[in-house]
What we know:
One of its GO terms (cellular component) is cell outer membrane. The protein is mostly beta strands.
Amino acid sequence: MTFPSRFSFSKARQQATRRKLALTALLLGTTSALPALAAVGAQPAPHVTSSVHAKPAKAATPVARRKARGPHKSTSPEDIQVVTTRTARYLSQPGTVNIMSGKELRELHVESPKEIAAFTPGVTAVNATSGSSPIFSIRGVGLDDYVGTNMGGIGIYLDGVFAPYPALYNGQMLDIENVVVEKGPQGFDMGRSTTGGSVNITSVKPSDKFGGYAEWGYGSYNTNTGKFAINVPITSKISNRTAFSYTKGDGWQHDINTNRRYGAQDLLAIRNLTKFQIDDKSSALLNIHYTRDRGTPMSPQDVDGDAVNGTPTGTIGVGPNARFNQVNVGQDRVGRKEDGGGASLSFERVFNFGVFSSQTAIDMYRRSVYDNYDGESVQVGDYHWNDTYLAQSHDMHLRTNIAKIFHLTVGIYESYDKIDGAYTSYRGFLFDRPEANLTDHFSQQNLSTGVYVNTVTNITHNLDFIASGRFSYDERGFHGGTRNDNGVLGSPAGSNLSYLNTSHNYERFTGRVGLRYQVVPGTYLYGTISNGYKAGTYFAAPVSAPQALDYVRPENLIAYEVGVKSSLFKNKLTVEGSLFDYEYHNRQTLFVAEMPGDITSLSLGSISRARTRGGELSSAIHDLIPNLDLRGSFAYLDARAISAVNNIGGLPLLSNVDAHSALPFAPRFSWSAVARYGIDINRYRLTLQASYTWKDNMLVALGDPNGQTNKISSMGLRMEFAPKTSKWTAAVYVDNMLNNHGNTYSFTGSDNSRAQYLQTPRWIGVDLRYNF
């Protein structure tokens, strides 16, 4: 696969790429059978099958699982999956892994990938724009960029398919089986190389039994949610599962002058899975999905725009003492129109010597979003995000055991993605002209390939040696730049202020070595040294300086981690703790710089050296005390720059970054706790749940005196009533019960005023669910 000729890729480089692809296929071919290589599709299941295998244990029978859960617990497939998945991961993964089942997600009212972070230690996720582009960070590793073209250091996988851009996982949190968060550099047993880790979101798969559920919910601000899933066995060899979700509600923000609402929801998502049992050793899964979003974007608050510009309070901003739900959007045409969908084909074949898996996927997304990014009723830095995404990927691997002491995974990954966009920044107020726009017209294309090998050798009965390696090759191409639409910066209207027509390629070997020791059955110690790599990137926002658009070099990370995992009392008590030390080179991050024309703007740059150290502890207690479930986590981070930064390509920063300055998206402390208690009432069961999450304040951009969040906390309560058969469930809940209004993301606007996003206020709702 090559880029169009307008990208300056030489024929020699294209031929080199073809040779690398041929080599990777050859390497895989030496390990797997030819018939397997000819198969298409895939269903890698990272939450079930791991490249690192523990000593095999006898599988628990359904009766034994029911006894372990207690006499009154539901025997639904979701509950069984929680037990088996947790056990498999604790025994098989030499690193920190956090898991939440679909049932837990539903009970905690987690509706989007961003909300996973509240209950996962060391993970942060915030919305830096109107709401559809969350920024993820694990242990301070991510990419704090609000532009939709950039992928972070975290790999987000939907049913095993890598989603390179935030827009691609909008709306797909429906009918979820579980979410698995893996910490540290990844890419040694599936997918793309990442520096920070991966988030694997897995949906419920079709089965050979008819069933499903229908769910309706009503919450604050007239929010209605309908969810539906049905599983239909079509033949003895074909099963189908269709899931549907639709949410529509009024916005919780009010304009102080027009009284219009903002932050409204109108989100539709559909997924259809068809499983084909080809024979007793082969199966295929077809996944087709679609998302549509017509919501109204939230608006940040600008608290001192009036003071900075000399206007009375409430004229263009909201002032420093505004209520949490007050915004000032004016007549700006805020709105969202997003449509996306795709398909993947998975194939799995069991051989006598191992399991071969292959997955091919393609996704497309189209969005047109008008965003009141500056938080003011005048055009200081409003945006129109207008882009089209195309992402294609293929991953295949073979997992095998040799002589029962050597466990091998070998695979190949390839992906291609393209974005065509026009990002417009409306700045009429700054230049005292009605039409004063800057637009970045661009096309960005990325090609990634990789060959990975992961091995586990049983040295002794209790000691395993882990060795992994990966070769990655990436090409990044960018064509376009920022146009001076109306001639407001001295150059002719329509001329380019910045322009690139370039490409960069990079090759990198990464690896991991480690030891895992079984202290007693169910308790393991481990230590690993690994390095991760993230490809270089471009900054596609409308910027008036060529330096702010230029290529940012690849990021490299070396990670040291030691930890302990223990599963006791037949999985009723689980404990996981770790200590880690990360060393960065060329850490990609967001800075605030001074641009030509007296404009302040965010841009990407790098820190030559940085370091992150910390620790995590998580634990779960399930029925150790009858009818009581407890879950808690704690994380500590010390993330700092080692090298000072005072400019980006010669552009001065708004505020210099000194050595030992804190890094963005790395809260010093964070913790969460969830308690559930069941009360039996004749044939029914009443369940009470309380949850609490807390994250320390953190930076969101370097060189920005306003780029710091508050301490964010939220308490939730839920009461659930259902028959012991779990045929139906009725629940009432409240999120953010204390109605906190912390600042979740803040920044300095183009006129040097301060804008901030606030956390969603108290939310009360009811859920009704019927299982059939």
